[in-house]
User: Fold this.
Amino acid sequence: MTAELTDATVENDADEREVIVRVRSLERHFPIRKGILKRQVGSVKAVDDISFDIYKGETLGLVGESGSGKTTTGRVILRLDDATGGDIEFEGVDLLGLDHKALRALRPKMQTIFQDPHASLNPRMTVASIVGEPLREHSKLRSAEQKARIDELLEIVGLAPDHANRYPHEFSGGQRQRIGIARAIALNPEFIVCDEPIAALDVSIQAQVVNLMEKLQKELGLTYLFISHDLSMVRHVADRVAVMYLGKIVELAGVDDLYDRPLHPYTKALQSAVPLPDPILENMRDRTILEGDIPSPSNPPSGCRFRTRCPIAQEQCKSEVPEFREMRSGQWVACHFAELDSQENAGG
Assistant:
């Protein structure tokens, strides 16, 4: 069973679930320039022809190694970086066709939570100024109303209102990320890109922040694109997961299918690198060990980009780009030799 990821295919699923973000054939290439005249001699293909949907109210996890294009994908969707090609729709609106004024009017609906709470908060601004900045820029609230909203936001994320006059350096990493979350939800957004929001936090604090984000999602009806390299955490928070490798999405599936029955060899390798809590099972299981480093996105391999590290690569992988096809209902994979197990094949 194969199929292309087209609008017609996705519309069948959209009968039951509302698509809030639609990405088609998205590209982001950074030019490489050399010489006195700075002529372009190549490009870094950070994101190269990817397509997916994000459904309203869900959390779509986006995972992969460093350099796979995850963060760039999130930035391009929010138009913090310009796309080189493709289409992005937010609630049916063509984002890439918006001018600055129209994009600014749409900004309150789309927000981001940054990876590093130390770098993303201005050390010269008080918490009240940081959390209140979106209100000053995009709302018509009066000063007293802004103060009341800031106090409310701090309480929502688990901070006391009397923290408003303090500065970021007076808080722990987890508290700083809560400040960043308060800023992100200040304008009642519908969609938030979470760019590794817990990666810079102590392990003991990560679960608290994730629980807060899940609580806010339920209470405020938020939709998340959750970018992370931590597969264990993504399994806990995501409804569906997209796996990226060198600018391409190689597998996209519901969280149970992806973790229990992965199809792409890269997905299997990523999962085998995650230790199991049971030492007996850990010693018994087969591991897929990837050789070498991820190739340069400025000079990616021909055909399948994963072929230089793939344990099942064959001659066809050098010359043909694998089709992104639906192997199970809702589970898409880009691999020439991905196969269902024998029982599934026997059952049709």
